[in-house]
Structures are given as structure tokens and as C-alpha cells.
Amino acid sequence: MEDAIDRRHLFSAVALATAATALPLTATPAAAQAPASGDLLQQIKARGELRIGTPPGEPWFFKDQRSGEWKGIGWGAGLALARELGVKAVAVETTWGTAIAGLQANQFDVLFAMDATPQRALAIDFPVQPMFYYALGVLARDGQAAKTWADLDKPEVRIGVVLGTSPDRELTRRLPNAKIERFPNIDETGAAFVAGRVDAVSLFHPALVLLRSRVKRGSVVLPDPFRVASTSAGVRRDADKSWRDWVGVALNSLYETGE
Predict the structure, then answer these.
(1) Tell me, what's the pLDDT at 38?
(2) In terms of Cα–Cα distance, which of 96, 110, 53 is closest to 234?
(3) To which H or E segment does residue 20 belong?
(4) Structural contact between residues 46 and 84, judged by C-beta atoms closer than 8 angstroms
């Protein structure tokens, strides 16, 4: 698949971030708090802050080095929801590998662009409505066969993934023979690809397109069989489901209105 086609599909899928990410807002980390019982939605409104988990990595969450402002698809969704609530959006840095523990410990209120897997749903809640849909693919070095997943399932093939993500779990299941290299974030995964320490990087399609535009090498491929997945927003499990349900309604509204 050509990069131009990939890019068109990407921006049609994630258009919700375009307006919200342009809004200036200074984000400061919020201190961890002990889990509180009761209506989390009312707690957020009373606090005047929506604390958003931000694991750094394009295109989901990244900080502009010149302005210090957070940007990205997940951050844009957070700004939009904070605007609807009439509260301030506050970034709380985390990692994908520790995000569930952060939600459980009440360090932040929501983490966008987190896939609702059965394992995660044992520990935290997800709204019924998905955030958007995307596809798992690879950024393969020139000359690396990647038309099918079987092309990559070989002992000599080294594939980089971000530790604790859905691609990590999917490749562990799908490619038992390949050598899977795990990194803490997208930047380090991309650096390993540029340095030639891995032959391919597997991420979801939007992240792959932006990584390819940055490293300017390799090809973005969606291997057969093609896998489309939905992503969601993780929230702390609470007896009162008002916050979880409101997040779902708000995300659905953003998607339906085209924001």
C-alpha cells in the first residue's frame, strides 16, 4: 500500500484531534491521590481538572519541544472532553506498561487510545462506544518481505514493538518464531529501526505513518490477513459508572459530528 493512500486513511480516521490539539494549554503533572469512592464525574467537576494519562509517543501523545504544550490524538480528545466539562486538562505522564496501575491508583482520570482488551477489562473500565478504528501494520526496512504476517514469522526477523501495548501482545501471539524486541516508547523503537537493530517496527497504522514521515526510510505495510481493531479510553473502575458512561457518550458525539 502506498504511503499516500495510508496517509489519507489515517487522517480520515483520526480527524477528531485536528481542532482540539491546536488549543494552547499548559499541562502540569498532578500528584497521585488515593482512590476515592463515589461519583468520579462529580469529583472531576468539583476539582476543576481532568487529569489525562499521557504516555509519550506520536501520534497519540507528544510534547512540543518549543512551546512545552502537549499534542496528539489522545491529548486532543482530552482537550475536547475537558472543554465539554468546563474544566482544565492536566497531563500526567505515564507509560503504556504502567498505565493500568496509574488508573487504579487514581493518578489520572482517563487514558485515551487504549485498546479495550479482555485482560485490561479485568482491572479497569472502558466505555461501550469505541474511540475510533485502526489497523495493525509494520514499517519494514527496504528489502524486508512483509506482504503477509507469515513473511515476518521467521527466527531471523527482528521486530520492534512498544512494551505492554496491544501490538506487543498481538505479535507475541501471531509471530512465535520471530525475534520480538520490546522498547519503552515509540521514540526508542524508531531509533532501533534507524540504527538497523530491528528489521521492522509494528504499531497501529496512524503511528506508523508518522514514524515513517520522521525517519524517512522503509515502507508502511498492512500485512495479510488484515486486522482492524477499535481503540477506546481506559478509566478507573468505580461503583458509580457515570464517568465511564459519560466518556463513551462524549467520544461518540465527537466521532459523529466529525470533530
Answers:
(1) 57
(2) 110
(3) helix 16-20
(4) no
